[in-house]
């Protein structure tokens, strides 16, 4: 059974649909990448999964329907959404941002352990722990957003373009850490990314969105090998 | 010199009240990005409630506590019933809702309690403390109550996870939802706290200015000036601003322009701050990188 199963999902912002019947799966411990150009509906897909936009269709987490569940309750079920634009609480410190990630948890020792774990993955955040989060660099804020997600000790992380607006070296660093995280933690990742090359290195499954429809899906190898995908998204 | 000191001290006492109301304004501003024009009238209703309880024979501090508690609940109710349905409306509509609430509460108070001026008891002794000539017991008490309340609020916002969640909601509601914070509940809680703080301010100012339906009009204006001076999004700034405005109002009123024109100080401050330094003394110009 999939960790996350999305079936014929429609979603939009009140003036017609942006998504027209999407099917996506994330296996337990697996990484599914959603690729596509600007405006294909990638961000909307993530927002629909965590109930941030109006949507119809079926979304199930471990067999439990969550398509009518409010966003905050989806988070409490163990879904961490690392949003577009990173969603930093800019006036709060790095540490307070991370503490908010664990807001819905009641197991204090576990939370304390997860602080150490996140600071291990992202030593730069440890250095900046008392600093106002708005003053962190873009890369550090992206790390903070991922760290905030991990503090939930999530079953599923949905991640919106962690490479956005970052220098190639920083993107490399973040994806290296994401690979470590994905290997070490028992959680699924639904990853939206425009940078198809780097996303396909992390993912085991992938699908390609075009104007709100899935035009191709399969294992990461299949998608990488597909001729039209190579031409359109991988620049090969 | 003695006269001057006395003006400063009694200014500090007024300042405590302004600081409290300013703090209530700031708390709601941070969550809604709007000034709650009804804040003064909410405090007015609370004070009338306290007055009714005391007249019914309830001991002062019991009436005080009950009023704070009921005001807290009423503040939450107002958020739920009146403010939330307007949450997605354009800014001007929400401003109109605030003004409507102000007028309605004021009329409600006049209707239920009448417009005659009432006295309101002070919980502090009539004799000045320690036999000094500069500060009365009530004045000292107001400063003490105000500072105590600030300290409580500070501790709550800084050191509890509920306080952290409320600060998070004030900054970024979408991200707050994503970490599982029940945003609606936090907003209601913010209104409850603001109403409770306002209630304390009302009960502290009423013994000085007497209780009538226009009691909070001037206070709200001073508090607004205080909040702006401190920086409309800065709780600490609101407190400092409150005391500064209180002293300034008294001193300028006594020595420069006369007490009849005191309110002008508030208006001049509001205009001055908005023109010269819109972020106020401690208001944050957030550092953000993109």
Give structural notes.
The complex is a heterodimer of chains A (236) and B (290). By secondary structure, chain A is of the alpha/beta class. Chain A has helices at residues 42-49, 71-76, 94-101, 108-121, 123-127, 138-150, 168-184, 196-202, 220-225, 227-233; strands at residues 4-12, 17-26, 31-35, 54-61, 64-65, 79-82, 156-160, 188-192, 205-210, 213-219. In chain A, the strands form two sheets. Chain A has a six-stranded mixed beta sheet with strand order 6-7-8-3-9-10, with helices on both faces. In chain A, strands 2-1-4-5 form a four-stranded antiparallel beta sheet. Chain A starts with a strand and ends with a helix. The mean pLDDT of chain A is 92. By secondary structure, chain B is an all-alpha fold. Chain B has one domain: Orthogonal Bundle (ABC transporter involved in vitamin B12 uptake, BtuC). Helix content of chain B is 74%, strand content 0%. Chain B is globular and about 60 Å long. The chains are: A alpha/beta (236), B mainly alpha (290). Chains A and B meet through helix 2, helix 3 and helix 6 of A and helix 6 and helix 7 of B.
Features of this protein?
heterodimer, A: 236 residues, alpha/beta, six-stranded mixed sheet, four-stranded antiparallel sheet, 10 helices, globular, B: 290 residues, mainly alpha, ABC transporter involved in vitamin B12 uptake, BtuC, 11 helices
> Based on DSSP secondary structure assignment, what is the total number of beta strands of chain B?
0
Give the strand order of the largest sheet of chain A, numbering strands 1, 2, ... along the chain: 6-7-8-3-9-10
Radius of gyration of chain A: 17 Å
Q: SSE string of chain A, helix = H, strand = E?
A: EEEHEEHEHHHHEHEHEEHH
Please state the average pLDDT score of chain B.
Answer: 89
Tally of separate helices of chain B: 11
Mean pLDDT across residues of chain A: 92
The major beta sheet of chain B can be summarized as: none
Extended strand count of chain A? 10
What is the compact description of this entry?
The complex is a heterodimer of chains A (236) and B (290). With 236 residues, chain A is of the alpha/beta class.
